[in-house]
Amino acid sequence: MQKQTEKKSALRRRWCRRASTALFWLALWELLSLRLPEVLFAGPARTARSLLALLASPGCWRSLAGTLGQIAAGFLLAFAAGLVLGAVCWRLAWVQALLAPAVQVMKSVPVACFVIVALIWIPSSRIAVLLSAFVVFPLTYQSVFSGLSAVDRELLEMAKVFRMPFSRQLRYLYIPQLAPFVLSGCRVSVGMCWKAGIAGEIIGLPRFSVGEQLYMAKLYLNMGDLFAWTLLIIAVSMLTERVVVWAVDWAGARLEAAYGNPV
């Protein structure tokens, strides 16, 4: 009984902290809207009205679906490539040395520079796919490589000496060590691929995309729509992150179940 009371009290305190934090930032937002010109800044009430109007518009959902599909395609392609090549490079040092310059370039080149070059070669309708993959691949690759590198070499040698089947090695050595790295990489890469994909859309202006809508709102100084689209991007990015993390957790559990017994 006492534990339940303490749990309810901790939950109540957590929600109070969240509510007070939200109220603080809303108050600060409202204060800034009162101080700044209306043509350059939208307050909470104006943004809420614009958001409701956007959600009632079919064009909003079409743009969100188009951008989400492009970014999801780039994320999945880069995530799969990062998993495979990260494992291959951990196993084969010469492949890791071969790919190291390309990975470093992908980590260092600014997105805006890459967009300008990429638009010479590919249509603007595919720019979000390429940019999402461009951002996600090095993060996933590095997460997999670092996770596998952190596996205890002595345990691997012991597994080899005792001829432990690969199924047991996968369950007891690789997956537990790799999962935290992959989850951490997913959390970072989901937000990054949204930023990169939409930045590319703002430059390339593909039709029926979030980037196009943001650019048009900025062009006509429609701050309400601009802030509303920004809130939508944040919400969809957070939802996507939760879905991806859940999917990785689910896949890890299925792998453990599938390889739980020796072959």
Rounded to the nearest angstrom, the radius of gyration is: 23 Å
- Please tally the helical runs, counting DSSP H or I stretches of 4 or more residues: 10
Overall strand count: 0
How would you sum up the global shape?
globular
Distance between the termini: 47 Å
Strand portion, in percent? Answer: under 5%
Looking at the chains present, what oligomeric state does this protein adopt?
Answer: single chain
* Overall average pLDDT: 84
Tell me the major beta sheet: none
Spans where pLDDT lies below 50 across 5 or more residues: none
Structural class: mainly alpha
Helical content class? over 70%
The string of secondary-structure elements, in order, is: HHHHHHHHHH
Tell me what the structure shows.
The protein is mainly α and 263 residues long. Helices cover 85% and strands 0% of the residues. The protein is built from 10 helices and no strands. The protein has helices at residues 2-35, 44-55, 58-91, 93-108, 111-121, 127-149, 153-161, 166-204, 210-219, 223-258. Helix 5 crosses helix 6 and helix 5 (111-121) crosses helix 8 (166-204). The longest helix has 39 residues, at 166-204.
Jot down its keywords:
single chain; 263 residues; mainly alpha; 0% strand; globular
